[in-house]
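Re: weekly structure request thread

Next one in the queue (379 aa):
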Amino acid sequence: MARKTAEQREAVKKMREIAKSNKAVMKKYETEKKRKNVPASEYQTTMKNPNNILEIDNLHTYFYTDMGIVRSVNGVNIEIPQGKTVALVGESGCGKSVTSLSIMKLVRGPSGQITNGEIRYNRPGGAIDIVKTPIKEMQTIRGNEISMIFQEPMTSLNPVFRIGAQIDEAIKLHRPDVKKDDVKKQTIKMLELVGIARAEGVYSCFPHELSGGMRQRVMIAMSLCCNPKMIIADEPTTALDVTIQAQVLELLRDLKDKIDASILLITHDLGVVAEMADYVVVMYAGRIVEQGTSHEVFLNPKHPYTIGLIKSKPVVNQVVDRLYSIPGSVPNPVHLPNHCYFKDRCDKADGRCNSGIPELRNIDDEHKVACHLYKEGNK
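Done, posted below.
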């Protein structure tokens, strides 16, 4: 067997050093999370805007691997107003789903950790910082006050339990006011609410007996059974055909109005965004590059990445030889550059793009962009 070269020995040594360093950091965060009897004063906070249901402020969520630290979410700021829909868009791997898991405090440890920032949630009894909230308290919020529709219903539903039993469990856990005999009635009512015609039959089915569209409706019913104040929909229409997509989106919109909930819609489909969202947040390589009202972002996009996303969407009744695609690829999240992350893919890049990472700047009352091409108030 050939001896290891000096370069290979150095690489192994470096990996061991990284692993040792990561172990100490992960242990620190895990110990903090497992604290018991945390006083409420430690995680109580104040909303910057009382009209918001959720405020994400300078959020950092990292994954500690043997290759280095993966900065999946790297200083994200998002505001979700009460009763509105905010769409979080971007390419696969840009940090959208990790942001949603951070809100639910479901980032898989010990390798995944929220290392910095605040997630302020406007509860009826007073605002709290989810980052500092103990797990026991979060269990009363998940599914009850903040609910999540996961990306793939087949992997989110338990294959060995019937549909009814899984929704019953959520109601029993979070709504002790519902009598035992009324739990099944409430479950069937929720299945009917999401447009399932033969609700009693579906109640007794296993997940594999249902189509993708039906499973997605079941997931929506499960997420809404406790009348949450906020719904996180992570790619809710990815695995569905166009007809079912339209039905699910229409359903979400109607249900949001009925229970006066807010929605964080995570997607890469700009057609869905245009139809559903009040506000749009564009994410790239773990950072926000543009945000504003749906009207502003679609009709007056500023960041070259946003322009590229919109340009790459097919247009009805327009014949083209080849669909546009943004050249290049997202930078390695372990070795992020110290300049604009989009510079190497940008057709408008110039010398200014090497001068550090651009911060979000206001170019209008409700429109922000992180690009060196724009200065504060410069439209």
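Residues 152-227 form one domain. The radius of gyration is 22 Å.
Next request, please.
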